Amino acid sequence: MIQAFDFFERLSANNNRPWFQEHKPEYDAIRAEWIEGMERLIPIVAAEWPRIRTVDARRATYRIYRDTRFSLDKTPYKTHIGTSLDPPELRGRHCGLYIEAGLSDGMTGVWGGIWCPASPDLRKLRQAIADNDDEFLAIVNDPALTDVYGTHMWGDTLKTAPKGFPKDHPMIQYLRLKELGKYCPVPRSLFASPDWPEALAERILPVIPLTEFIAYSLLED
């Protein structure tokens, strides 16, 4: 899989349709190897988080074509490859796991959490954190998580307390988050190993309790 980075470097310097069409077989081979890797990774993670056991690796892997309609950057192709492993019951709610490899600064790695949640989901999650503070703190302070992902929570934050919560709420640092997740960068060298899917899976496992807390909170009546 390490050859993917060389391909994306060359694509970055030649991000146009003629060049990509000429080199598309090379990309197709990279994508096929990535999907095969995800097919090895998913069962390992699903053993700890059964919610994703039915995820189809091919369908969960994003296409290389960029949506340029609302972007100043009109280059047509992404210079990375990524897969979202979201529970089917939460499809479309940006909750789950994400794996990416490519050129984007600080983006080759694994994520777990919720991104750009809809307002009702964010309100529900904040209430779950407030109502289950001991459980939540035990998850985010678990050395199994912090040793791999650090103590920083990924995502933007409000400048003040969200509506319905006092500024001095004991969980305010988490209630101010507009997204909730953890990110673990991985070096390109990891992809040089034939066991790269298993190595990525091992990095994902520590964040599963957090993603399950989020999933359960959103699905709870």
Describe the model.
The protein has about 220 residues and is α+β, with helices and mostly antiparallel strands. Helix content is about 45%, strand content about 10%. The model has no long low-confidence stretch (mean pLDDT about 95). A four-stranded antiparallel sheet has the order 1-2-3-4. The chain contains nine helices and four strands.
In short:
The chain is of the alpha+beta class and 221 residues long. It has helices at 3-13, 17-46, 57-60, 119-131, 133-140, 143-149, 172-175, 196-204, 208-219; strands spanning 80-85, 95-102, 109-114, 180-185.
Reconstruct the topology from this structure.
Layout: H1 3-13, H2 17-46, H3 57-60, E1 80-85, E2 95-102, E3 109-114, H4 119-131, H5 133-140, H6 143-149, H7 172-175, E4 180-185, H8 196-204, H9 208-219
Antiparallel strand pairs: 1-2, 2-3, 3-4
Number of helices: 9
Main sheet makeup:
4 strands, antiparallel
In terms of structural class, how would the helical and strand content be classed?
alpha+beta
Rg, rounded, reads: 19 Å
**Alpha-carbon distance between the termini?**
43 Å
Order of helices and strands: HHHEEEHHHHEHH
In one word, what is the shape? Answer: globular
Q: Helical proportion?
A: 40-55%
Oligomer: single chain
Please mark out the parts with pLDDT under 50 across 5 or more consecutive residues, or reply none: none
Average pLDDT reading: 95
Strand content: 5-15%
Query: What order do the strands of the largest sheet run in, or round the barrel if closed?
Result: 1-2-3-4
